[in-house]
Design goal:
mainly alpha
Length: 259
């Protein structure tokens, strides 16, 4: 039976009970740090009571509606961006189109502020502007990750498909597209965390549409630190919920995935 000493050994495999116990200890330590940091004359954080008051105020002001608005915005942008990214990533195996995919991947270093200036000249509706900004931002990172997935395909898998008399386009379909669908969900799960963090900036484009970004911006404007901490916790929990759901979806659809 593993002992406490095994918790500090590199590469040690622990049972779920031990893993849950360690996680619980860290949660207690973080909560203790929160209470200690708010108990002295110099408060590092808003006290838990103020954060709880922020939770109640946010719920009374329609927190669920704002969460739904943020999720709907994120869903729309995600569907469009993943379709665009898959199109360019799969075409990257064709030599003529590969420079386009690589160029789009390199454009992820462009600052978001510069991109929004030109997008505003194309789109007039603020809601469409929000979606377009997220689509551009997400697509560049999706394409980069998908190119990495395609490049990592072992040559043996491609040779095996060719040995079965598959044409080049059939190899693309069977090995790259169908054979790596589980990796697409994993790429989506990893990159969606970056997009979720961008909501605060993107949702400020249209305040009337609401969303978690609007709430945290208004709270920051009025220096309501309790609401800010409450919103940070809500954004974190919703993001973790999305991550758990996508991981569950991947495991359910691809039971034999080796990721």
């Amino acid at each position: 039976m593993p002992t406490i000493g095994s918790w500090f050994k590199p590469f040690e495999r622990l049972a779920r009970q031990h893993t849950a116990l360690i996680s619980g200890i860290w949660v207690v330590l973080l909560l203790g740090l929160w209470f200690i940091g708010t108990s002295g004359p110099t408060k590092l954080f808003p006290p838990p009571s103020l954060a709880w008051e922020g939770f109640r105020d946010l719920f009374a002001e329609g927190l669920v509606r704002h969460i739904a608005s943020s999720l709907w915005l994120c869903l729309q942008a995600t569907v469009i961006s993943i379709l665009i990214s898959l199109f360019f990533a799969y075409l990257s195996v064709v030599p003529f189109f590969r420079p386009v995919a690589i160029m789009l991947s390199r454009m992820r270093y462009l600052p978001l502020t510069g991109i929004t200036f030109y997008l505003a000249m194309v789109v007039n509706d603020a809601r469409d502007m929000q979606i377009l900004v997220l689509v551009v931002f997400m697509s560049l990172y999706f394409i980069t990750s998908l190119l990495g997935v395609i490049t990592a395909i072992p040559q043996e898998e491609l040779d095996h498909a060719r040995s079965l008399q598959c044409s080049r386009w059939e190899v693309l379909w069977e090995v790259v597209i169908k054979g790596r669908l589980d990796y697409v969900i994993e790429v989506l799960r990893q990159n969606l965390a970056i997009t979720w963090m961008m909501l605060v900036t993107v949702e400020s484009i249209l305040v009337a549409a609401g969303g978690l970004g609007v709430l945290i911006k208004n709270s920051d404007k009025f220096m309501n630190h309790g609401r800010i901490v409450a919103l940070q916790i809500i954004i974190l929990l919703v993001g973790l919920g999305i991550d758990v759901f996508l991981n569950f979806l991947r495991r359910m659809l691809f039971r034999y995935s080796k990721i």
